Amino acid sequence: MEPLIQLRNLEKVVEAGPNKFYLLRRINLAIQPSEFVTIMGPSGAGKSTLLSIIGMLDGAWTGDYYFLGEAVHKLNVKKRNELHKANIGFVFQSYHLIDNLTVFENLEVPLSYKNVPHKERISLVCDALDRFHIVGKKDLFPNQLSGGQQQLVGVARAVILSPKLILADEPTGNLHSAQGDEIMQLFKRLNDAGTTIIQVTHSERNAAYGSRIIQLKDGWVVGDSATAGAHVGAAQPA
Amino acid sequence: MHIIFEDLRYGARMLWKHRLATLVCATALALGIGANTAMFSVAEAFLLHSVPFENPDRIVAMVNVRPQQNIETNPVSPATYLDWQTQAKSFEQLGAYNWDEVNLTGNHEPERIQGFDVTANFFGLLGVQPKMGRTFLPEEEQPGKDQEIILSYGLWERRYASDPNILNKTVKVNGKSFTVVGVMNKGFDFPMPAELWMPMALTVKQRAERTSRWLWVLGRLKPYTPLNQATAEMTAIAQRESEAYPDSYKGWRLRVMPVREFATTDITRQFTLLLMGAVGFVLLIACADVSNVQFARVSGRQKELAVRAAVGASRARLVSQLLTESVLLSLVGCAVGLLFAKWDITLILAHMPADVAKFVAGWKTISLDLNAFVFTLAIALFSGILSGIAPALLTSRTNLSETLKESGRGSSASRARHGLRNALVVAEISLSLVLLVGAGLLVKNFTALLKVNEKYHPESILAMNFILPELRYKAPPSRVYCDEQVLQRLSTLPTVQSAAMVSEVPYANGGGADIKAFSAEGHATRDRGEANTAIVQTVSPNYFVLMQIALREGRELADTDGDGTLPVAVISKSLARRYFPEEKPLGKRLKVGQAADESPWLTIVGIVDDVHYSWINKDDIPTIYRTYRQAPPLYASMVLRTAGDPRALVHNVRSEVGAVDPELSLYSIKPLDEVISDSIVGIAYVAVMMGILGIIALVLASVGVYGVMSYAVGERTQEIGIRMAMGATANDIQRMVLKKGALLTLIGMGIGLPVAFALASALSSLLFGVKVADPVAFIVLPLVLAAVATLACYLPSRRAVRVDPLVALRYE
User: Fold this and answer.
1) Pairing label, strands A165-169, A196-200
2) Residue among A89, A98, A114 minimizing CB distance to B307
3) Type and span of the H or E element at B59
4) pTM given for the model
5) pLDDT at residue A234 in the model
6) Is the per-residue pLDDT at B550 higher than 90?
7) Nearest by Cα to A210 from A221, A231, A226, A227
8) Is the pLDDT of residue B415 over 80?
9) Cβ contacts (< 8 Å) between B14 and chain A: which residues?
10) How close does chain B come to A85, measured CA to CA in Å?
11) Which helix (H) or strand (E) holds B739?
C-alpha cells in the first residue's frame, strides 16, 4: 500500500551567524493511512518542527517528502497550500480558536477558505456541532468556554473537512486529565473511522491511544515502535 | 460574494471591538478625505467649470505673453486680431471682446457696471443663446450702428425688476442711448463678471493699431482640429507678423490656451493647485497614521492570522481580509468626511464677500456634486488600500510554525514592520513640516499685505466710489467744480480731517490694477525691449498728505495746477527707477497712451513713495499721478481721513454729496481697511486653509509619533524590565525612548526641510512679503514641530519608566 507520508533524509537547519543548528537530522519515515502515530521526545528534540513540516506549515527544509505519492519537496507554495488544505487538519495545544468568532463561525473558517458553498457550509457546521455535542455552544465566543470545550471545538474544526490526516500538537497539554481523556477518545474514534492521526505528546497515557510511537532526540529519530526498536536513523552521533 | 460579505461582517466586528482605534483612524481619515473633497469641489469649480457655458472644449483663447516681464496673459492689438481672422484656417470663427466698465444711468440711480464690447459673433462662438431677444448682428459692428445692448439676467432682474417688456427699451450707458435687444440666460456672466454686452465697432484708426493691445481673442476650433495643430498654425502666423512688424511685436509671443484655463486666473490656478497638494499631503499623513494603527492592531492578531493560515487561508485571502477591514474603516472615514466637506464648503461660501466672488470664475458652481461624491469614494478606497496594504502584506508574511508555538515570536517580518512603521513616521514628520512651512509663508504673505497698508492707517479712512452723470457733466470745468464742491463739503464734516480724490484706492476692484501704456519723451520702448506701463491715478493734490505718501523729490501736485497751467504729473519711485534709471526724471515729459496720441504731454514735477495698489503683484507697480483739475474724471473714489469711526459718517456723507447734486451717485462706501480685507479675502482663504491643514498635519503627525513610540514601549516592556533589573535608572530608560523618537523626528525634518525650501522658493517668487529664508517658517515652525513630536514621545517614555521589572520579566 502506498504510504500516506514518506520522508527521506529530511533535514531542517537554522543558521545563526557562522553557526548552523540542526533541528532535524536525516529523518526517514513512512506513515501508512489509518495509523495513529505518537511522536515523543524531550523538549527541543524537534517534535513540533517535524509536525509543522509534515503539516506543510514550514517549507524551509531539505530532503524528500511525499504525501500520497505527491512530491511535496517539489511543490511551490501555492500547490503545497492546496495539498495541505485538502488533506490535513490541525489541533493545537492552545486550541488557537479565533477569539472574535463564535463557535459556529470558528467551525466555518476552514470551509470558507475552501470555498464551500454557503448552504453546504451551514450543513457541515451543523453536522459537526451535532457530532461533537456542542450545539448549545454555537453562539458562544471561545472565552466563554472551558479549556476542554475549546479543544473540542478545535478538534471539530480540524475534522470538519474530513481530512485524511490530523496533526495534533500536545492536544491535551492544557487540559486536566478527564478532559484530556475525552479528547483522546475522540481521536481514537476518528482513527477507527479511518483518519490518520499524528500527535506530539509528552504523555505516555496519551501515547497509549496510538498504534505507533516515534522517539526523537536532538533532531534524530532514535526509536520507532513500527520497526520494533530498530535503528531507523542513518547514523547517530555518539 | 459571500466571502466578501463575511469579510465585511468580520471587519465591522473588529472595528467595533477596537472602538478607540477605529475612532482615531476614522477621524484622521475623515479629516483627510473631507479636506480633499472640499478642495476637489473648489478645484472642480475653478478649473473645470470656470466658464458658464456648455461644451467649452473646442473654444480657445489667444493671448500675447511677454516672458521677460512675467506677463502671462495680455490682450492683443486689433490689427493682430484682424490678421488672424483672415489667415487662420483652424477655426470655425474668431471673435473678440474688450472690458469696458461703464456708467449705467437713465431712470434709475446711476451705477458703475462691468460691461464688455464684443464682436457680433461672440455669443454664437460660445454656443449660447439669449433668454429673450437676440444677440448682435454683423452690421452692428460698424461705428455708428453699435447702439444695441444685451443685459445679463442678473442686471435685468436687479435693475429692471425682470421687466418682460425690456426689449427695445432704451438704456443710457456712458450718457449714450442704447436699445436693449436681448437678455442672457441666468448664470451667464462671461467674461467675468459681465453684466452687459455692447457691440464692438472698431474705427478705421483702431483697426490699424498694432502696438495697443486691448482685445481678448477667442476662437472655436473646426471639428477634428486638435489644439496643437491650431497652435502650430497660429504660431506660424505670429512669426510672420513679428517679421513683418518687428517694432510692434518685439518681446511678445503668442499663447493659445483652452478657454477654461484662460478664464481662471493664474493666481487662482496656482493657489488651487497648492491647496490640492496640501490636502493631498494631509491625506497621506492620515493614511500613514491609519497604517501605523493597523500595524499595531494586526500585530496583535498574528496568532489569529496564523491559525487562519493553518486551517487553509492562502496569503492572498488573508491580505484581502485585512484590506477589507481597512477599506471598511476608510468608508467610515468617507461618510464622516463627506459631512466635513459639506461643512467646509458652507464655510468657504459663507465668508466670501459678493463683491469679490463675482470676479472669481466658477465660484458660483462650488458645490458637493456627484463628481465630488465619486471622487470621495475613490479616494476613500485608495486611502483604505494605501493604509492597509503594508500592514496586510507584512503581517500576512508570518512564520506559521513559530507563531503557533506557545511563545513564538516573529523575527525578520517583525523587523520589517518596525522599519516600515518608522519610515511612516518619518514621512509624516517631513510632510507636516512642508505643510507647516507652506502655511507659515501664506500667513506671512497675508499679514505682509495688511502690514504694507498699515502705514497710512486705512482703518481711519472712509472710501467710496463716486459717479458724475455724464450728460450733466460733459464739460470738464463742470466736473472740476462739482468735485471741488464735494471735497469742500466732505472735508468740513465733523471728525473728518481731510477729504481727497483718487481714481482707485489701493486694492480696489478685487485687487487688480488698471494698468495703462504710456510714452516717455525721448524713450523709444523698443530700446528697452519692454512696454511702458503704469497705473494712472487722477488725484486731488492733498491725496499724498491724506495717504501719508512721502515726497522724495520735487514737489507734490498743487491746487494751482489747473486747466490753464502746464500739465504736470507726479511719479512713483518705482517708475523713476525703472524708466529713468540713469537720469533725473524731474522736468521730463510723459504721455498716457502713445506718443502720437492727442493727449497732452505731462511734465514730471515730483517723485513720491510707492503705494502697493495691487496685491496680485508682488512688486510695486509704477504709478503716474495727475491732478483732477487737469483731467477731471466722471468716475473716481473719495477718501476721507477721520478722527472717529469712519462708518459713522456714511449718512452725513450721503447728505453732503446729495446737497451738491442729488443725481451724484455714491456706492461701495466702506472703510478702506474693509476694502483691503475684502480684496485679499482670497489670500486670507488660502492662508487660513493652509493654516488649518498645517495644524491638522501637526496633530496627525504627533498622533503617529505617539502611536509608534507607545507601541514600541509596549513591545519592549520585557527589555525595559531586563535593563532596569540590570541597573538602568528611570532617566536612562526615558532617554532611550526619547532618543528613538528624536531620531525619527530629526530624520523626518531632515527630509522635509529641503522640500519645504523648494516650496518656499516657488512661493517667494509669487507672494508679496515672502522671503525664501523666512526665520519663522524655517526656525520657529520646525521647532514647534519638534516640540510637539517630543511631547508625543514623552508620554510613552513616562509609561516606560513606570515599568515594574518583576512584572516585565514575566511579560510576553
Assistant:
1) parallel
2) A98
3) strand B59-66
4) 0.78
5) 40
6) yes
7) A226
8) no
9) 100
10) 5
11) helix B730-764
- Using DSSP's 3-state secondary structure scheme, residue B312 falls into coil
Search chain A and give the residue with CA nearest B17: A100
Spatial separation of the C-alpha atoms in residues B502 and B725, rounded to whole Å: 81
Question: Which of A58, A83, A92 should one mutate to test binding to chain B, selecting the residue with the greatest count of B CBs within 10 A?
Answer: A92
pLDDT, position B391: 84
What's the rounded Cα separation, in Å, for the pair A89 and B704?
A: 41
What is the Cα–Cα distance from B475 to B632, expressed in whole angstroms?
Answer: 9
Say if the Cβ atoms of B308 and A114 lie within 8 Å: no
Residue B779 is classified by DSSP as I
pLDDT at A238: 35
User: Region B677-695: what's the mean pLDDT?
Assistant: 88
Which tops the pLDDT comparison, B258 or B101? B258
The shortest C-alpha distance from A113 to chain B (Å) reads 5
Q: What is the pLDDT of residue B339?
A: 94
Residues A60, B728: Cα–Cα separation, whole Å: 40
Q: Which residue of B has its CA nearest to A96?
A: B307
Q: Where are the beta strands (DSSP E) in A74-126?
A: 88-91
Find the closest chain B residue to A89 by CA distance: B311
Q: Which residues of A touch B321 (CB under 8 A)?
A: none
SS3 label, residue A228: coil
**What band does A90 get if pLDDT is binned at 50, 70 and 90?**
confident
Mean pLDDT of chain B: 87
pLDDT band at B525 (very low <50, low <70, confident <90, very high): low
Q: What is the pLDDT of residue B807?
A: 66
Residue B219 in this model has a pLDDT that exceeds 90: yes
Neighboring chain B residues of A90 at a CB cutoff of 8 Å: 310-311
Q: Counting Cβ atoms within 10 Å, is residue B427 exposed (0-12), middle (13-18) or buried (19+)?
A: buried
Is ipTM over 0.85?
Answer: no
Residue B804 has pLDDT above 80, yes or no: no
Interface mutation target, options A49, A57, A90, chain B, most CBs of B under 10 Å: A57
In percent, how much of chain B has pLDDT > 90? 47
**C-alpha to C-alpha distance for B613 and B505, rounded to whole angstroms:** 7
| Angle at B149 (CA atoms; ends B104, B153), nearest 5 degrees | 80
Q: Are B424 and B285 in contact (CB under 8 A)?
A: no
Residue B407 CB neighbour total at 10 angstroms = 6
Spell out which residues of chain A touch residue B3, defining contact as CB-CB under 8 Å: 112, 115
Does residue B407 register a pLDDT over 60? no
Residue B15 with chain A: CB contacts under 8 Å: none
Q: Determine how many CB atoms are found less than 10 A away from the CB of residue B87.
A: 13
Interval B621-666: pLDDT, tens: 999 999 999 999 988 899 999 998 999 999 999 999 989 988 787 8
Q: For residue A87, which of A159, A29, A157 has the smallest C-alpha distance?
A: A159
Domains annotated for chain A, with CATH where assigned, are 5-227 (3.40.50.300)
CA dist B279 and B53 (Å) reads 29
Q: Locate B614 and state its grid cell.
A: 495691487
User: SS3 for B594?
Assistant: coil
Interface contacts A/B by beta carbons within 8 Å: 63
- The domain ranges of chain B are 58-263, 469-663
What amino acid occupies position A41?
Answer: G
What's chain A's length in residues? 238
Residue A94: phi, psi to the nearest 5? -95, 20
Residues B36-60, mean pLDDT to the nearest whole number: 88
Compute the nearest-CA separation of A92 from chain B (Å): 8
Q: What is the DSSP letter of A234?
A: S
Which residue among B14, B310, B313 sits closest to A90, beta carbon to beta carbon?
A: B310
**Residues of A at the B interface (Cβ-Cβ below 8 Å)?**
48-49, 52, 55, 57-58, 78, 81, 84-85, 89-90, 92-94, 96-101, 109-110, 112-115, 118, 157-158, 161, 169
Q: pLDDT at residue B413 above 60? A: no
